[in-house]
Prior knowledge:
Residues 2-445 form the Biotin carboxylation domain. With 651 residues, the protein is an alpha+beta fold. It is built from 18 helices and 39 strands. The strands form 9 sheets. The chain has an 8-stranded antiparallel beta sheet with strand order 14-13-10-11-12-15-22-20, with helices on both faces. Helix 4 (90-98) packs antiparallel against helix 5 and helix 12 (395-408) runs antiparallel to helix 13. The radius of gyration is 27 Å and the shape is globular.
Amino acid sequence: MMFDTVLIANRGEIACRIMRTIRDMGLRSVAVYSDADRDAPHVRLADEAVHIGRSPANESYLVVDKIIAAAKTSGAQAIHPGYGFLSENADFAKACAAAGLIFIGPSAEAISLMGDKATAKRRMIEAGVPTLKGYQALEQDDEILVKEATQIGFPLMVKAAAGGGGRGMRLVQNDKDLPQALSSARAEALSAFGSDTLILEKAVIRPRHVEVQIFGDQHGNIIHLGERDCSVQRRHQKVLEETPCPIMTAELRTRMGAAAVAAAKTVDYVGAGTVEFLLDESGEFYFLEMNTRLQVEHPVTELITGLDLVELQIRVAQGRALGLTQNDIHLNGHAIEARLYAENPAKDFMPATGHISHLAYPEGVRVDSGVETGSDVSPFYDPMIAKITAWGADRDTARRKLVRALKDTVLFGVETNRRFLVDALETQTFSAGEATTAFIADNFSNENLAPTPLTTDLAALSAVTQYVAAREASNAIVPKSLLGWFSAQAICTPFQYNDTRVEVTALGSNVFNVKAGDETFHISLEAWDTSTARFKVNDRRADLSWMRPSPSRIQIQIGAQNYDLINALAVSKQSTKTIGQGDIRAPLHGALTEIFVTVGDNVKVGTRLAVVEAMKMQHDILSDIDGTVETVLATAGSQVAADAPLFKLTS
């Protein structure tokens, strides 16, 4: 069962991460790529790369035959699926075996059994693993589900039986909301997993999401590598993960570890897997699901155990014994991981797309990334930019190091959740180790998720940075038409940020008086290079990163916040189309999977008009007024661009 060439049936950061271990082991790696990923970092990192199709995942990364053919063409003897895509697809594991290829993961039988939430839960009940009250039978008529829901009691969770990652999952507070939840969960589940089978489960309000990393080999050995607390989530998808769990005790870890190992033994599990539990306020825990693959958040486990989980996966797939017993596992220190996404927290964490014009990470933390300066965040795949993970001898050290690393990460070109991550890590709730799955709802509102307004001192700094950048770019006299420069007198340059007008007066070499709104600042330039600057503002030091995408614009980053400033003299006023009441536009690039209204329909505020699917999630398009559908401007099944008009409503 030994092999020397591994094809990675994935992309992005996980493909890059797997390739590094493959190289360290002296093995050869093969990448696969779609049209959108032709120039991606994982393609360049591999020893060989094979093109597998067009950009949509269902025409490339999800096509089993294309992956198998790529393995045969490249001479790979084994396939590592990473996570997502085909990693938990039992048919893919079977296809690998039928083609004489080694699947680096568990058996197809284990994937099939544990990948179906209903079947897995029935097996856990038989094995004595604690589970929640629920419904997991095969009968799926709405009438039966409504009846079972009434017996379970509200609130409850509707879940896709074949699902994961929060897709096909709905929290239902009362019987009135159940029919809509069943309908939307079914549609999302069918689109994401090819199955619309649902289960019902009693909801635990404000639990912790705690998972246990398990590992098994082909010789019957199964151990666990401690737990991870993944309670901070948006849309049921994890954002911050850490280990150990802040409230874990030795006794609780022993019990949860034993339950996780028992769950794995019921299916003769081989390889890396994760058993997920809900931990309630009383200290009781309940089986949630089992992920039969490597988890996104595995770096925190690696940092506190000193183990390379990908190396262990490969060794086990080669038929070797784990070489570890439970007594060999020692947890050292604390690790916290933050998922840096291209998304807009102020708009329900809606995914963002765009070109990354500059990206640089600090030293002293672990960074797993699959993009770089010049990469595009495409609408076809998950919008993750990087996982940034910090280790410390204690939890607060790890937390503070992660905050600093996020602030020191320089990123221009796409909207991200970076400021939200910093704000979350700095809340009293997270600092105290008290975060539950209700953390975001309890600690963040639309107001504090909105972009921070540019204060007058930052507006002044931005304007000076724009002026100096333009001066440096000119290498001579700055054009009067651009900056209002006159050689015989001081410089007065108006800038605009939202409603703040900023005037810069140069007093001498790198010394400025700046009027922003009703305030005046004395600013001096102390250091400058192609992307960073250091200023003194009224005797207070300020460091920032900057980028000048055009003569009329300057982008600056201070801490975790980015700002964009317009030079009022360098750009003429242009009329811009505004999105007013009744003008319904696409919130992001994606597929318009369903339209629920036609011309002439009467709608109310909040009426569901359509569904746009992008980056593995479905986004409801809702009416913003009470009125009538005047025009339908798109068709179901079509691709729509961000901000494309979809409906015109009249009140």
